[in-house]
Amino acid sequence: MEYSEEAKQVQKVSEYVVAYDFEVHDIIGTITWFRDCRTILYAIIGLYLFGVYFGEKWMKNKPAFKLTLPLFFWNSGLALFSIVCTLRGIPEFLFLLSKPDGFYLVACVGTPHNFATSFWGLMIVVSKIVELGDTVFIILRKQKLIALHWFHHAAVLIICWIGYEYYETAGRALFVNTFVHSFMYFYYAFKALGIKIPKSVSQALTTLQIVQLAAGVFGAIYILYLLVVQGRPCRMHFETFSLGVSVVAICLVLFIRFYKQSYSSSDKKKNK
């Protein structure tokens, strides 16, 4: 399916952002590819979990790699990518949110829409594959690999991939995630250099992630309210909704548990 020049102009120029030429792409063709190639997603997740399990076994009797500079550049690159994503994608989210009934527009209504938002939404999905490399550094440096880490990485990739297949309008909220990641990856970059960062910064970042997840759960409850109580239509597929709610709720519980273990005085004594 080809877009007419008029349709391209509508999606390229808007009140909140003007798309660059490289951001104008075949949205329908890309969605179709993702739908036809979901087996690739399952293969990636399978290889990732295989690597997590056997990677730790392989490193068990080997000395840890330092990887100071590679880790710094890795995290810095992801931080810069997150900033660009946020700057290009979040204007549409904020523009719709500022309107009357803004949350409904963000979560359930497909228009107005812009090529820039779509392009960087696609880049976020691709980045979730790249971010699996975070785990490689943890394993090679022989750091403690907690369940929250690998579950979060695998689950978010699945949600993003399937969400893009259905081209969910609520995917606009992913740019809130890149906003959080902008701070998070810069924190990891400085930490990789051995720079001493106050514990309060780490605590604030974890709190920010918890707030983000809690907002996701609240959003899901509100969408149910719109559908069931108000009977309003919402452009959201059941598979994405059910999977997304489940994963976000589980991650919220795991993050709260991690927060308590890391920052609660009684739990900190136990960990020591």
UniProtKB/TrEMBL annotation:
GO terms for molecular function: fatty acid elongase activity. Its main location: membrane. It catalyses: a very-long-chain acyl-CoA + malonyl-CoA + H(+) = a very-long-chain 3-oxoacyl-CoA + CO2 + CoA. It comes from the Eukaryota. It is a multi-pass membrane protein. The chain crosses the membrane at residues 39-55, 67-90, 102-125, 145-164, 170-190, 210-228, 240-259. One of its GO terms (biological process) is sphingolipid biosynthetic process. Pfam families: ELO. It is found in: Membrane. One of its GO terms (cellular component) is endoplasmic reticulum membrane. This is Elongation of very long chain fatty acids protein. It comes from Allacma fusca.
